[in-house]
Design a protein that fits this description.
Low-confidence stretches: none
Distance between the termini: 51 Å
Strand content: 15-25%
CATH topology of the largest domain: Dihydrodipicolinate Reductase, domain 2
CATH superfamily of the largest domain: Dihydrodipicolinate Reductase, domain 2
Shape: elongated
Oligomer: single chain
Structural class: alpha/beta
CATH class of the largest domain: Alpha Beta
Number of helices: 13
CATH architecture of the largest domain: 2-Layer Sandwich
Number of domains: 3
Largest sheet: 10 strands, mixed
Radius of gyration: 24 Å
Bound molecules: L-homoserine
Helix content: 25-40%
Length: about 425
């Protein structure tokens, strides 16, 4: 059999340890498929003595993880350290400077520095692969870059954060509170070290920006993703959505937008909780599962679904990248050479047509409903349904939820502007868009 692909592995957290377990457990099968063995030569992490459930004695150890790229006895670096900058970024740059390929699960680093790193990899003629950075074990990057390569992708959207999906679907099924379910997600190990990245939508936005770049041949533009998380969703929102025939899911959507009328194509990217019709495939995605829909102009709708986090699924994606490299596949990280990536300006979401759910917590006194409906009228928003829930216990704050007819998003924004600062509101209004079929 041919010479092994020699690997340096930096970062021995859940996923790094999972990579060791997978490479060891499936060694023979992987060698047959790759045409040569994968050999982990050296590992590095912050703490050598931490218990990880894997035996590190077969591997050399480096204290300085950023130095492993300089070793002559490795061909490729696997970066499982995390963080957009710091040691992970230094290691990635060092890898290319030393002519070595890089496999990473680091969505933050790719979302912030992906184009510059792809340029460095291209210049060094080495691979940069990050299947594990988006949707864990789901081969969605491969699906877009290879399986759907013949298509113009018209839209890509989906459930990109397992923690949020676990929280929302568990709240829906159990009626439990947000904080209680978040604590369970953290115990189960799929929340990020800083859970605000999950629940504020940042993690999903990192992944969406990467997917959009691949799907549309555009430069990664994480800063342009309109991002809102799930922290303000109440059990009552889930209840009202269900009564209307919807579930609530954190959805990332990206699509090219040429609606400005100036002939230019812009890029729309948004991560926000949405009302999803109960008969939509994404409504059935529960727990920490991820699902991505890509609409190709010839393939039609493609649905990729599976575990979006966890050591096994994420290691599966990392090792798939290593197998590609062992086979000699370099490829363009974002499907096309860096010089051909388009710098698409962000789309103005005000042009978008759609329906929205608006929820208000208001003082229960005469005129408040009239104030809300007057703002809708003045902004040209047509209301399709409206619910006000009285409080039998005499609490003076009540919930008003309404769903609009289809119309421009700018009109909803204008209605909310008209209501801004009103003393009738106990909390800022919550807006969620409705996902079409
Ligand atoms: N914290 C992420 C999630 C896992 O919950 O989906 C890996 O991106």
């Amino acid at each position: 059999m041919a010479e092994p692909l020699r690997i340096a592995l930096a970062g021995l957290g859940t996923v790094g340890a999972g990579v060791i377990r997978l490479v060891e457990a499936n060694a023979a099968l992987i060698a047959r498929r790759a045409g040569r063995p994968l050999e982990i030569v050296v590992v590095s992490a912050r703490d050598r003595n931490k218990e990880r459930g894997v035996d590190l004695s077969p591997y050399a150890w480096e204290d300085d993880m950023t130095a492993i790229a300089a070793r002559d006895d490795v061909d490729v670096i696997v970066e499982m350290v995390g963080g957009a900058d710091g040691p992970a970024l230094t290691l990635a740059r060092n890898a290319f400077a030393h002519g070595k390929g890089l496999v990473t699960a680091n969505k933050a680093m790719i979302a912030h520095h992906g184009v510059a790193l792809a340029a460095a990899a291209e210049q060094a003629r080495v691979p940069l692969k990050f299947e594990a950075a988006v949707a864990g074990g789901i081969p969605v990057i491969k699906g877009l870059r290879e399986g759907a390569a013949a298509n113009a992708i018209e839209r890509v959207y989906g459930i990109l954060n397992g923690t949020c999906n676990f929280i929302l679907s568990t709240m829906e099924e159990s009626g439990r509170d947000f904080a209680d379910v978040l604590a369970e997600a953290q115990r189960r190990g799929f929340a990020e070290a800083d859970p605000s990245f999950d629940i504020e939508g940042t993690d999903a936005a990192h992944k969406l920006a990467i997917l959009a770049a691949i799907a549309f041949g555009a430069e990664v533009d994480f800063a342009a993703v309109e991002t809102a998380g799930i922290t303000r969703i109440l059990a009552a929102d889930i209840f009202e959505a269900a009564a209307l025939g919807y579930v609530i899911r954190l959805i990332g959507i990206a699509e090219p937008d040429a609606s400005d009328g100036d002939g230019a194509t812009r890029l729309f990217q948004r991560v926000q909780p949405h009302l999803v019709p109960v008969d939509h495939p994404l409504a059935h995605v529960v727990g920490a599962t991820n699902a991505v829909v890509a609409e190709g102009n010839f393939s039609g709708r493609l649905l990729f679904q599976g575990a979006g986090a966890g050591d096994g699924p994420t290691a599966s994606a990392v090792v798939a990248d290593l197998i590609d490299i062992a086979r000699g596949e370099v490829g363009c990280p974002f499907s096309v050479p860096v010089a051909e990536l388009e710098a698409l300006p962000p789309a103005d979401s005000g042009h978008r047509m759609g329906r929205a759910y608006l929820r208000f917590l208001v003082a229960d006194r005469p005129g408040v409903l009239a104030e809300i409906t007057a703002a809708m009228r003045d902004a040209g928003v047509s209301i399709e349904s409206l619910i006000q829930k009285g409080r039998p216990d005499g609490d003076s704050t009540v919930l008003v939820a309404l769903v609009t007819h289809e119309g421009p998003e700018a009109s909803v924004t204008e209605a909310l502007r008209l209501l801004e600062g009103s003393p009738s509101f106990a909390a800022p209004p919550l807006v969620m868009h409705l996902l079409g079929h």
